[in-house]
## 1
Amino acid sequence: LTLGGGWEWLALARLAWAVGTLLWAKVRGFPTWPAAVEAPPPELLPPPAPANAFVRFFATNDVAWVAAADAATFAARRAELVGAAVKKSLRAKYKKACGEIVAAADRMVLD
């Protein structure tokens, strides 16, 4: 990924959060889920409108573009969403994802 003067730079400049930012992100059909912002692979640039962040979801390792309106910083909603009720089929993965993002946040504080 080069950040020269091409469209890659313009696409990344539109992103709402820096790489490494911990988020709660929502995609249709799933509950709000712990995620981290990653640099998108070049083949996925430019982002589809209105995407503002390329994220990797904790516990599942799925990736997606999400709009700023469908995400919030981890710290902003931590108390509300860690341990939130989700449907039975997702509970184990959600619990694992919450544990992973809490550990990641704790590591960031220590660094």
Note: Residues 91-110 form the longest helix (20 residues).
## 2
Amino acid sequence: DIEQLCHRIIIINKGIIVEDGSLSELMDRLAPEKTIVVDLFDEPSKDLSVPCARIVRREGNRVWLQYCKKDTGAGEIISHISQTEHIRDISFEETGIDDVIRRVYADSSR
């Protein structure tokens, strides 16, 4: 597993170094967003909005919100939602290094 074995990652595409840095640097630069999944007791109100995040998906009582890790934290998002909604559970989805590497190759092949 890359995350456990490597401290530095160099991504080469067609003989050219396209990315070089520590895992955390690459993840911060290439995957700056994080997704928080909020399960509510009731279906969320139609006008639910969070200023520091964008709703990327709704499914029943579950809402997926994406936010920039540098600009805000999960606490601010949770605090805002809890003002109008009753939260049952919270989980997080982060982009994996394999997705980031795929993205780098897709972008550099254009």
Note: The CA atoms of residues 5 and 52 lie 34 Å apart.
## 3
Amino acid sequence: DKFIKKTAFFYTKQRSDFSHKLKVKFDGKLKILKPEANFVLIKILVDKSSDYLTEQLYKAGIIIRSGSEFRELGNKWFRIAVRGNSDNNKIIRQLADLLDNDDVEIYVKN
């Protein structure tokens, strides 16, 4: 019971912090919907597709779910799981690299 409450509190705080950071960092580039679950639903407002972001983020070890997998959403939407603070910050850094620059690809060191 204590573990469940602690876990629920952790994810509630992470969800709120993560969505706030995304809104501040990507204002005008991404529309962040208020999360009600363990993921954040995001609309891309710039000339990038969710398939492009999915492919590029995968190279960095980040898995997102493209909206093109959902008939109702399309390739301008994606969803991403809420994680711990360091993982969420990594996601933000990688998204910034992809959205702040034209035709950027992530290269993974072998």
Note: Strands lie at 30-32, 39-44, 65-66, 77-81.
